[in-house]
Design a protein that fits this description.
single chain; alpha+beta; about 35% helix; 2 helices; 3-stranded antiparallel beta sheet
Length: about 60
Amino acid sequence: MTRYAVLAESASECATGLARLCEALGLEPTTAPVRLTDGRWIARAVTPTPDAHGTLTAAAAAQ
């Protein structure tokens, strides 16, 4: 599995970057934007696999 990350200065910039990355490369988001200790934001995505499809979507639906 290949992992990708978006590093940004704000939560909205990070979310936008994650959405664009996932759309462009057909990725599955796995971590919504999270604030790092240095004040920046990070979000992650992975290449989709049959056994790990919709990780973030499934987590959101469970709430």
